[in-house]
Amino acid sequence: MPIHRRSLLLGAPFLLAGCTTARRQEPTPVARSLAYAPSYETMYAALDGEPYPVPAVDLSQIDPRFLRREVAYATREEPGTIVVDVEARYAYLVMENGRALRYGVGVGKEEGFNFRGAATIARKAEWPRWTPTPDMIRREPERYAKYAGGLPGGPGNPLGPRALYLYRDGRDTLYRLHGTIEPWTIGTMVSSGCIRLLNQDIIDLYRRVPAGSRAVVLSSAGTAA
Q1: Which of 216, 14, 214, 212 is nearest to 122 (CA)?
Q2: DSSP percent split of the chain into helix, strand, coil, nearest 5
Q3: CATH number of the domain that residue 83 is part of
Q4: β-pair partners for 117
Q5: Residues in domain L,D-TPase catalytic (predicted)?
Q6: What's the rounded Cα separation, in Å, for the pair 48 and 32?
Q7: Active-site residue, selected from the candidate residues 93, 136, 194, 215
Q8: pLDDT of residue 148
Q9: pLDDT, block means (10 residues), the chain with 225 residues
Q10: Do residues 197 and 176 lie in contact, with contact meaning Cβ atoms separated by under 8 Å?
Q11: Is 19 a catalytic residue?
């Protein structure tokens, strides 16, 4: 599915980053007319071999267009680059010959919360520790102050089983691509700025992307860079 490249805005404020949902949203089952291939039952089955449970995804809660698939993708970015299209709610791992692996994502609940531009995956972590940013604590101290020292990785951690850390010019932007404990939010504007994927998808992407890889988060302006 070819798409046009979006323009890059390089001045996004770092301190709006965060990785949690503003308020808990109850899952809404997807209409059964939006059928998914039987192979997705296997792709999104529970995973063994992890230190904590990774349950199967309830596919009735996910719009099928946000499930992982290989697609045609026109871009000037080199293979191995991650391209996040915030407006479309997709992350693409660029492949050879005009192809890409496409993952559905959840993005920032407000336009200003989303990182824009180019970055480097300077760090990767399995079952990462989560710490709210100072800005999150200032905005909602009643929710986040108790986690100022960080929350260890585990089933209740909002980063899920994997995280890819975005750096620019050697500096942590405080934005990540990570898993989620709220799979039904994929395809929505929901987070405090980070890019969330289904847990099975972030584990798949984590395996494919080495540290040092390039990541590009596109703007929603719809114009070429």
Answers
A1: 212
A2: 20, 25, 55
A3: 2.40.440.10
A4: 217
A5: 80-218
A6: 28
A7: 194
A8: 86
A9: 37 44 51 65 96 96 95 98 96 98 88 79 96 84 87 92 97 94 92 87 98 91 39
A10: no
A11: no
Q: Which tokens hold the place of 124? A: 């990767």
Does residue 146 sit within a domain?
yes
Residues of the domain holding 65? 14-218
Residues 6+ apart with CB under 8 A from 39: none
Asked if residue 211 is part of any domain, the answer here is: yes
Residues in a beta bridge with 102: 69, 92
What pTM, to 2 d.p., does this model score? 0.83
Tokens of 225: 């860079």
Q: How far is residue 80's CA from residue 100's CA, in Å, rounded to a whole number?
A: 9
Q: Do 103 and 197 form a contact (C-beta atoms < 8 A)?
A: yes
Is residue 178 part of the annotated active site? The answer reads yes
Q: 206: helix, coil or strand?
A: helix
Question: For residue 139, what are the contacts with CB-CB under 8 A and spacing of at least 6?
Answer: none
Number of domains in the chain: 1
Structure tokens at 204: 């798949």
Question: Would you state the pLDDT for residue 35?
Answer: 60
* The residue type at 158: P
Token code pair at residue 12: 């996004």
The pair phi, psi for residue 35, each rounded to 5°, is: -75, 155
Would you say residue 8 lies in a domain? no
Q: Can you give 121-162 as a three-state secondary structure string?
A: EEEEEECCCECCCHHHHHHCHHHHHHHCCCECCCCCCCCCCE
**Catalytic one among 106, 178, 188, 202?**
178
Q: Which helix (H) or strand (E) holds 196?
A: strand 195-196
